[in-house]
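Service request form, structural biology core

Requester: graduate student, group of Dr. S.
Request type: structure prediction, single chain
Budget code: on file
Notes: please return the result as structure tokens.

Sequence provided:
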Amino acid sequence: MTAYIMARKSQLAGDIGDPVAAVDMAEAASNLARPGSRLQALAPTYACHGHALQHEDDAARRELDRAHELLLQATSDQASPWAVWLDEPYLQAQRARSYAELGRFSEAVEGFRQAIAAVPPSFRRDLGVYLSRESLAHARAGEPEQAADVAMSALYIAEETGSARIMNALLALDEQLEPWRTTPLVAELHSALRSTVVKQA
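Core staff response, request fulfilled:
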């Protein structure tokens, strides 16, 4: 439980843009995790994001490769209740997120698409999060129409699930798309987002 909490604290640190805490918490989680467990693979997954936030490409790549290897070795951990959702699509989504932070937007988009294609239908929130992050990668690559198109699918899931995490990503996207606000798809997304915000208020 302690290892899981430390790993999640690493994830939260990365989400709020604190790369030092993200890496430190992930290292603590890794030290606490039982060898051969999924938690041992989870820790470097979030350390990767911390390194990506600091634009440390090689370090981010090493952590994700390590997470992948540890996940493959976690066969004896099938009965554990911790991090049961950790699988290859999840790692792929985290790799894509790191690519986006490192400015490799085309690779990020492709990575998110691969993860999205493998998400189980019941994992609606995860699907929405990945779609919103793909849309942000499109926007940062200067592809406003693709960003708005993907974001509309994420918005539908945000409304369905009430996910603040997805909505926050889409509101950040809306700001990034401001220079293209007159583009029809971007304008449609902007209106839909504002309508959703009003309904949720």
